[in-house]
Amino acid sequence: MTTNRRQAACLRWGGFAVIATCFCIPLSTSLMELGSALVILFWLGSGRATILGRLLRRQPAAALAALLFLYFLVAVSYSPADWGAAVAILMKYRELLLLPLVLSLALGDQALIRRAENGFVAGAMVLMLISYAMGLGLIPSAKYGNSLLFHITHSFFMALLAYWTLQRAIDRPRHRLPWASAFLLATANLIFITPGRTGMFTFAVLLGFAALQRLNLKKRLAGCLVLILLIPAGFMLSTNVSSRVQQALQDIIHYEPGTSRSSLGMRLDWWGNSIELIKERPLFGHGTGAFAVRQQELIAGGATMPSDNPHNEYLFIGVQLGLTGLALFLALLASQWVAAAGLERHRRFLLQGIVLTMATGCLMNSFLFDSHQGHFYAFLSALLLAAPPERPTTSVPAD
Fold first, then answer.
1. Residue pair 386/115 in contact by the 8 Å Cβ criterion
2. What distance in Å separates the CA atoms of residue 141 and residue 215, rounded to the nearest whole number?
3. Which helix H or strand E contains 269, and what residues bound it?
4. pLDDT digits 0-9 by tens, 57-109
5. What is the 3-state secondary structure (H, E, C) of 38-106?
6. What is the tens place of the pLDDT at every residue in 12-70?
7. How many CA atoms lie within 13 A of 343 on its CB side?
8. How big is the chain by its Cα radius of gyration, in Å?
9. Contact residues for 153 (Cβ-Cβ < 8 A; gap 6+)
10. pTM, two decimal places
11. What is the annotated signal peptide range for this record (predicted)?
């Protein structure tokens, strides 16, 4: 086989691997990681490395993602964690390298971008249907309850599915009924089945943001009023929502530093620990994987529970890489928001939703560090960035 034919074959199979990975992201950790490994393997054989330098110059988000991973790599050298533990944390951030790789594989390939996006939506819908089947007793529940995934991760994908299907219901009038039905099903799953508060909060943020994207000023005010009425309605109709909100309020009211064992109480401890550690080394941080080691030293003799991360990506990066690393992460999110302005409307709104979801979700969780959320962010944002810029006259994207 000639070099050109081999590269063309790898490029084609790399596209299939991207689509398969997007489908598996909401479903299976092992299949998702296998898919991403295949993406790397086919990328190496595709010859797309030759355009990587030009891509990094033209796509600030790709360059910033690669630079942030390089920073994590360098920070291994001054980490107090043992080499194996530091490298294990470093590999948790490998999605940063996948972003430019996926972008280069999908660059300008409308069919691949559309199929991969559809693959993610299909995977999220399968997750939702499995959750309903478990909730109704049609199939046995898994170790995480009514989901294949941990409740935080499940609720994250349900919020995204609701946002995605809402956007499609608006943009695709010929298929409005099925997409609107999928939106209502994803919303009901969040309200009545999954206990993830992160997803509930993300859903409310995305729903409000969708109103800002789609409505004029007068209708925005009406939409905000409807949203304000819907939130207490959901609180009264769903014990799932009301119990989780009440639990959060109780966690805050009864919080005692160092002794609270609630989910939110321990987070408050870890956030306080993180701020103290950032103050110690504000510029370059303590090194990759340093949080667990430095926190153990900080809480020695106290009752605070140890953790491998503070469940806040901004603080986690700040502890490891300092304010310079945090600035890089914020610049990465900002660059994607700016790049979204050049895309056609449907993809612009989706990329903005992804950035907003990461920005808000990282306040309560370490989503770049977490495998499923990190892969989603890298793959789907890269695919949307790979789309051609907006044309003077845009058309409704095909299913």
1. no
2. 40
3. helix 263-280
4. 999 999 999 999 999 999 999 999 999 999 999 999 999 999 999 999 999 89
5. HHHHHHHHHCHHHHHHHHHHHCHHHHHHHHHHHHHHHHHHHCCCCHHHHHHHHHHCCHHHHHHHHHHHH
6. 999 999 999 999 999 999 999 999 999 999 999 998 988 888 999 999 999 999 999 99
7. 24
8. 21
9. 196, 370, 372, 373
10. 0.90
11. none
- Three-state secondary structure along 317-372? HHHHHHHHHHHHHHHHHHHHHHHHCCCCHHHHHHHHHHHHHHHHHCCCCCCCCCHH
**296 with 306: CB under 8 angstroms?**
yes
The partner residues of 142 in beta bridges, in order of sequence, read: 145
Q: Does residue 237 register a pLDDT over 70?
A: no
In whole angstroms, what is the distance from residue 18 CA to residue 236 CA? 42
Give CA–CA dist 236/165, Å, rounded: 25
Residue 54: half-sphere exposure toward Cβ, Cα within 13 Å: 6
183 — pLDDT class (breaks 50, 70, 90): very high
Q: Which residues contact 177 (CB under 8 A, 6 or more apart)?
A: none
| Residue 321, token pair as written in the block | 């890489």
